[in-house]
Fold this protein.
Amino acid sequence: MNERIAMSTANYTRRIFTATVLSACACALLGPASASAQESNKSPAHREPIDVVKEFLENTTPDKVDAAAKRLVAPDATYISLNFDNPELKKIEPWAGTSKGPEAFSTTFANVAKYWKIEDFKVTDMFGSGDNVAVFGTFTYRSVAVGTSFRSPFSIHAKVKNSKIEYFQFMEDTYASAASFRQSGSWKVKTDPKAPAFEVGKGK
């Protein structure tokens, strides 16, 4: 009886040991694959909004901006360039106003490079809070058609969700940018009700 008990105990111990070894081997073999599978089942890694905006701004040259917009901009994103809607300014700068989708982003930056020679574009500050990103900097452009150069501050307010830009508002010195295309003429303006009118934009 004792001998049968001893044999039964030995067999049970061997089965437990064998199962443990097999389990350990399976974990060693399948562990990395399992981890990879888990990674592949995840949606693309969440990216911080500030990193998404930074990548877009680093890829705004004509040869890169279309791909960057398709990669980083939401299909229904809103782009506000300079103002909400100003038909007169839009005649000078066709990208001005409110537009939608990745194409609005790529078209804007492609046209900027077409209308002006970009002599300098520098981001001085960039910070974020939640989905919101703020960007500040300066640029110097020279109009291709007229040759007039100007320097302007710029600011951007962007909103990013699920690693895609959903809102982008770009502001600059529009008086200086529009004036860089002026060939002739001047304005007679009156600002102070108690002061006389005066001319601006005389000559080149």
